[in-house]
Amino acid sequence: MHIAIIGAGCSGLTAIKHLVQAGLKDIVCYEKNDRIGGNWIYAATPSHSSICSTTHTISSKSMSQFSDFPMPDDYPDYPSHQQILAYFQAYARHFQLEKYIRFNVAVQQVRKIEKERWHLSLSDGTEAEFDCLLIANGHLSIPRHPDWKDDFSGQYLHAHDYKSNQALENKRVLVIGAGNSACDCAVETSRNAALVDMSLRSPQYIIPKLIMGKPTDTFAVSLQWLPQRIQNWLQKISLRIQVGRYRDYGLPEPDFSPTQAHPTINSEIFDKIRHGKIHPRSAIQGISGQTVHFIDGSSAEYDVIIAATGYKISFPFFDRDFIHWEDASNIPLFLRIFHPDHPSLFFIGLIQPQGCIWTLAEAQSQLIGRLLTGKIRLPDNWRESAIAEGKNWAQQFIARPRHALEVHYYPYLQSLRQIIKSTNQSSE
Predict the structure, then answer these.
(1) Is the pLDDT confidence value at 294 over 80?
(2) C-alpha angle with apex 312: 112 to 272, nearest 5 degrees?
(3) Number of C-alpha atoms within 13 angstroms, CB side, residue 230?
(4) Which positions ≥6 away from 126 have C-beta within 8 Å?
(5) Which terminus of the chain is more solvent-facing, meaning fewer CB atoms within 10 Å of its CB: N or C?
(6) Count of CB atoms situated within 10 Å of the CB of 224
(7) β-bridge mates for residue 129, sequence order
(8) Where, by residue number, does the polypeptide cross the bilayer (predicted)?
(9) Which pLDDT value is given to residue 423?
(10) Nearest in space to 304 (alpha carbons), one of 94, 157, 110
(11) Beta bridge partners of 119
């Protein structure tokens, strides 16, 4: 079985590792960069990566490491991007993964051909055909811009292109959004900008990185045995004790449960707001020149706008009439992996979990390895389940573009493990 993988980031690496471990050795992974790491390859200028110079993880070390390759003991609870890249590089060395990777080769076009096979056209001018195709190209590289982008006459940049606060000294800055990228940009910019405002269109749960001295995600682990309703109540109570009311910070109060939206994990934002370094603003009504008008009737002038407005789901190597989910409200994939019309096509890491994506990509890869080697099979109704599952996930979260890929970490992981542990001996 000849297998292609697109992307050698965290998802692509664990895919190689677990396919090889399952006994599948005829693997080629195409990576357009000159090294492994994907989004964790930091560059001081805009690139494919969305991380900035001060990026740290928002999931803790203990909840982010691969099951058979722990992070070093001297890593902090929340490692830096340099440490995470070094971890992935060590993972690739330890399991000898680089021999399966072709660096500096981008996949330019993918066509499905007869017998559920795949034809790839590559940036080096060559072509290749494969029996199976794994997509691990990530979903944080194509920015989603606001409609008013071109109305602003000052400096505009998407959070994807924000790399450091050095060029923003003494500038009046408006950050759009209150997600993880928005809060990171606002906090870092506030260290040397003349003014930092943060515009919120809707309420957002902002959760400290530590609860009772422990990483927040380890607190969530301790609640998993409880019914979801009780978990939600305890999470709200713990946030009220630690943070107080969001309106005390000038932030809108969420009117939904913590698990209905992707959380923002940030401790510094509260400190910066209460020290007057960051000023929450309402949603934008319109922009004229460098003046921004807000829906509460106020207005202000800014030198720079940083739009943390999310990313598009993009597969530039597929024709748009084949697979195109940029504006999809739900994604019809069984277990977020299997396409009902293309049984030899698999998606790795095409999820936005309320937890760490790497450990889920590892479980996805284990499942695919067992499936392709005939150790397990999918349920007979998996194609029908793919359609229903996409709708079901969409109903569990607030209808926003950022939630098109959202999953609840533990229920999703459990659903993967149930199939991985099944004892069926044939695959479809």
Answers:
(1) yes
(2) 155
(3) 6
(4) none
(5) C
(6) 12
(7) 119
(8) none
(9) 55
(10) 157
(11) 111, 129
Q: Which domains does the chain have, with CATH numbers?
A: 3-142+311-423 (3.50.50.60), 145-307 (3.50.50.60)
Q: What is the pLDDT of residues 328-364, one digit of tens each?
A: 778 889 999 999 999 999 999 999 988 899 999 999 9
pTM over 0.85: yes
Radius of gyration from C-alpha coordinates of the chain:
22
**Amino acid in position 35:** R
Give the list of residues 6+ apart from residue 355 with CB closer than 8 angstroms, or none. Answer: 59, 63, 217, 220, 409, 410
- Express each pLDDT in 205-247 by its tens digit: 999 999 888 898 887 777 777 887 888 888 888 888 888 999 9
CB 334 within 8 A of CB 386: yes
